[in-house]
Amino acid sequence: MGTAFNSFVANFTVDRTLHPSADKLISR
Question: What distance in Å separates the CA atoms of residue 21 and residue 2, rounded to the nearest whole number?
């Protein structure tokens, strides 16, 4: 489970990097 969670976090971080606008929506 730890590996899957780590992969999810990495994917989420990459998604935020590629889509800064999405990060603004999340922080809002």
Answer: 28
Decide: pTM greater than 0.70: no
3-15 tens-digit pLDDT = 888 888 888 777 7
Which phi and psi angles does 13 have, rounded to 5°? -65, -45
Question: What distances in angstroms separate CA 16 from CA 1, 2, 5, 13, 24, one per listed residue?
Answer: 22, 21, 16, 5, 9
Q: What region does 25 belong to: left with phi over 0, alpha with psi -120 to 50, or beta?
A: alpha
